[in-house]
TrEMBL record:
Keywords: Cell membrane, Cytoplasm, GTP-binding, Hydrolase, Membrane, Nucleotide-binding, Receptor. It comes from the Archaea. Residues 54-93, 110-124 have a biased composition (Acidic residues). It is an enzyme of class 3 (hydrolase). This is Signal recognition particle receptor FtsY. Involved in targeting and insertion of nascent membrane proteins into the cytoplasmic membrane. Acts as a receptor for the complex formed by the signal recognition particle (SRP) and the ribosome-nascent chain (RNC). Part of the signal recognition particle protein translocation system, which is composed of SRP and FtsY. Residues 94-109, 125-139 have a biased composition (Basic and acidic residues). It is a peripheral membrane protein. It catalyses: GTP + H2O = GDP + phosphate + H(+). It comes from Methanobrevibacter thaueri. The keyword Glycosyltransferase does not apply. It is found in: Cell membrane; Cytoplasm.
Length: 454
């Protein structure tokens, strides 16, 4: 997922490193340094490891009282152990010493074999030294030096005199990044914002070794993306609970163009909240499209929820109203209103959608967009937001989106949160959107680490 964006980010780091190393070499300001070269994505794992250590420390701090209580029975048990058992315990190390003695004799009998082994082991060491200066070896050779932590032995440089990242070092590289982001269906304002934030974070940084360049670039890009995707907003589950406390159902209206998976998403959400213990009801307010009522009825029957429907061509606002009244009367917590797909340029259908909103008075208006369409989905969301003021976004087919342009852009452009992602074709293939999850997808991936180091 989002492979294209990940490669763009890692290439930016590599280009900046090459730029600074070439300049330092021309200035005679470069020297070999022992150690391991970190890959771009290795810093993502280091962050995760720190979090795990903090969790472990917190758990250890919660156990001091339990340890003190355990100390008393341990002392009592020691007093009850008879002396005979102590003697038996002492005999065991003697046997170990005897076995070690025989091993020593064997070692003395095989000095020649050890010498031969040492000569064989010396050869790979020489190979590693010779490979230090070459960073463009074949992929198979590089993979041998990359550890599970994303570290590669050799290839690390340090600067005799400390260098400072200047605007001239990043200008061309960030321009290339901006163009690549635009080609990857990232919205213009998002690409510009990312590049400006990265530039602000990098320029002026002091660097002593090549690993510093990779680390600073990694965190500059991660911070820039985090700022873009972190749009505040309540989750739908929290809103259901708030409305439930008031004795009212949460009313959600779904809008979007044809073919984005709006009706299927409603079926997935009905299944999602049914499994959480809520009772949804679906309103078949798409009375315009042929087969729409049958389609949403099929999904409702499959997941086992009530559907409120009228005849084809009837007033969609009336269907939505009846569904809300049914939920109130039956004590159901969630109303999901399906509406006809429409292009944002179709004035008549947009006016009809405004009427549905006015009559049903939804708590949430959610735009459903296809992640694969990239910039088109972002522009559609912008138009719908201008027309009826949407409250959130659901992106379908996110699992098949290699570019990631819509996922990165859509929330920032309309300043409304992404609420769910469709990640497959089954009813269970939907997940609540989490910015932290998105960051992890973009900045930590084991398979990509090896590929980028090659």
């Amino acid at each position: 997922m989002f492979e294209s964006l990940k490669k763009k980010f890692s290439r930016t780091s590599e280009k900046l490193e090459e730029e600074l190393i070439e300049e330092a070499e021309a200035e005679d300001n470069l020297q070999e340094e022992s150690g391991s070269r970190f890959s771009f994505f290795s810093f993502g794992r280091k962050t995760d490891e720190k979090k795990e250590e903090e969790v472990v420390e917190e758990e250890e701090n919660l156990l001091p009282e339990a340890e003190e209580i355990e100390e008393v029975p341990e002392a009592e048990e020691v007093e009850e152990i008879p002396e005979v058992e102590d003697e038996e315990i002492e005999e065991e190390p003697k046997e170990e010493k005897k076995s070690r003695f025989w091993h020593r004799n064997k070692d003395k009998d095989e000095p020649a074999e050890e010498a031969e082994d040492e000569e064989i082991e010396e050869e790979p060491k020489e190979e590693k030294k010779s490979r230090f200066w070459s960073r463009n070896k074949d992929k198979d050779e590089d993979e041998e030096d990359v550890s599970a932590d994303g570290e590669a032995k050799g290839g690390i440089f340090s600067f005799v005199r400390e260098k400072t990242i200047q605007e001239k070092h990043v200008e061309d590289i960030l321009f290339e990044l901006e163009m690549e982001l635009l080609q990857g269906d990232v919205a213009m304002e998002v690409a510009t914002e990312v590049v400006e934030n990265v530039k602000e974070n990098l320029v002026g940084k002091k660097i002593k070794r090549s690993n510093d360049i990779t680390e600073y670039t990694y965190y500059a890009l991660k911070d820039a993306v985090e700022e873009i995707i972190s749009i505040p907003g309540k989750s739908m589950t929290e809103m259901i609970e708030e409305k439930k406390a008031q004795g009212e159902p949460l009313v959600v209206m779904f809008v979007g163009i044809n073919g984005t998976g709006k009706t299927t998403t409603i079926g997935k959400l009905a299944n999602y909240y049914l499994k959480k213990g809520y009772t949804p009801v679906i309103a078949a307010s798409d009375t315009f499209r042929a087969g729409a009522i049958e389609q949403v009825t099929y999904h409702a029957d499959n997941v086992g929820v009530k559907i409120i429907k009228h005849q084809k061509g009837s007033d969609p606002a009336a269907v939505a109203y009846d569904a809300v009244e049914h939920a109130r009367a039956q004590g159901k917590e969630l109303v999901l209103i399906d509406t006809a797909g429409r292009m944002q340029t179709n004035t008549n259908l947009m006016d009809e959608m405004k009427k549905i909103k006015r009559v049903s008075n939804p708590d949430l208006v959610i735009f459903v967009g296809d992640a694969i369409t990239g910039n088109d989905a972002t522009e559609q969301a912008r138009k719908f937001n201008d027309a009826i003021d949407i409250d959130g976004v659901i992106l379908t087919k996110a699992d098949a989106d290699s570019k990631g342009g819509a996922s990165l852009s859509i929330g920032y452009v309309i300043q409304k949160p992404i609420m769910f992602l469709g990640v497959g074709q089954g009813y269970d293939d939907i997940m609540e959107y989490d910015p932290e999850w998105m960051l992890n997808q973009l900045f930590s991936e084991d398979e990509e680490i090896v590929e980028n180091e090659a």
